[in-house]
Amino acid sequence: MTFKDLGLLPVFTDKCEQMGYTEPTPVQKQAIPVVLQGGDILASAETGTGKTAAFLLPILQMLGDNKGKPGTRVLVLSPTRELANQTEAACREFAPKGISCTAIIGGAGYKRQMDSLRRGANIIIATPGRLIDFMDQGLINFNNLTHLVLDEADRMLDMGFLPSIKRISKVIPAKRQTLFFSATMSAEIEHIAYAMLKDPTYIEVSPRGKASGLIEQTAYPVAQQSKMPLLLDLLDREDFDRVLVFTRTKRGADRVAHVLEKREHKSNRIHGDRSQSQREAALRSFKSGHTNVLVATDVAARGIDIDSISHVINYDIPEAPEDYVHRIGRTGRAGNKGTAITLFTLAEEHSMRAIERLTGERVERVVLPDFGGHHMPASVAAKKAGSPARKTFRSFGGRRGR
User: Fold this and answer.
1) Could you give the 3-state DSSP secondary structure of residue 39?
2) What is the pLDDT of residues 14-30, one digit of tens each?
3) Is the N or C terminus of the chain more exposed, i.e. has fewer CB atoms within 10 Å?
4) If we measure between CA atoms, which residue out of 370, 372, 365 comes closest to residue 392?
């Protein structure tokens, strides 16, 4: 199946071809025809599945059919600045001449965003907080709005944006097309979605809670005080291109990044306390390969859409099992194999088991006594050092020191 088969016009299919997109992804195959027909969508799709193009391409085509209508026609709500910026960049890439878009986000130039609104951007991509700031000043007119997109709705709810979303939905026309995308699909998410949608088409790209079969998953039992030495040892042994390291807290991200920098790893960090320019610079550096280790918190990592991440390391095990699937989904993309490594203490064994219950998969344990792994009960130690799991560990190759 081609993009032309989905009903897209040559101006968009040619652009896809120029950008190297020859075949639609599963979410694009399912979503694009429905959007072109004007239907609402409830989609369970992770970052990296092609969901941005799944809503942008058909919406842009529909806007092109009605270029005469002035003002803001499309509102895309995003949980983070990074995701909003990436969506705006994609919009500018695909948009035909005469269709304008702008990102309305916190931490960026207020005057520039205000000027864009006054010029009447056709597509607004916004984080809820900054959007409401402008709404309160009377700078946004949604009278002609025809499309609402909620991107990564689950993370917006996790971040406490539900009251803002409800407030925004009250001031936009009830007669609209609504596209609701969420990486996870809990009962709460579905309840909120169905309150905003009209007879939606449900799209599920992959089974809920399932990780890609291209990702090799291992877990290392470790004493708390040995986590940093183990991380450094793994990085020294690993044959990696880019590594995304997850911590639970901003302070933890700062601490890990600081140690990595002292050990001469090309690293940076991204979290909510970093300025917008710092976060954008860190992402650019990581994407270009100037730095190859990025330390991130869950919220800040939303919107990181880089196909060449070879490894994800959970320095801190995630609080929610669903976040584990979302974290490791940053690797093993575009047909590439990926590696996901989780460090966990004895007290966190229950969290590992919760992850396994969600995914329906056993995560192979690798026990390294030098890092406190021998303190784990025998039932945890599925693989001893020197077993096939140990061989997997040794096969990392190790660039450093060669």
Assistant:
1) coil
2) 999 888 888 898 899 99
3) C
4) 365
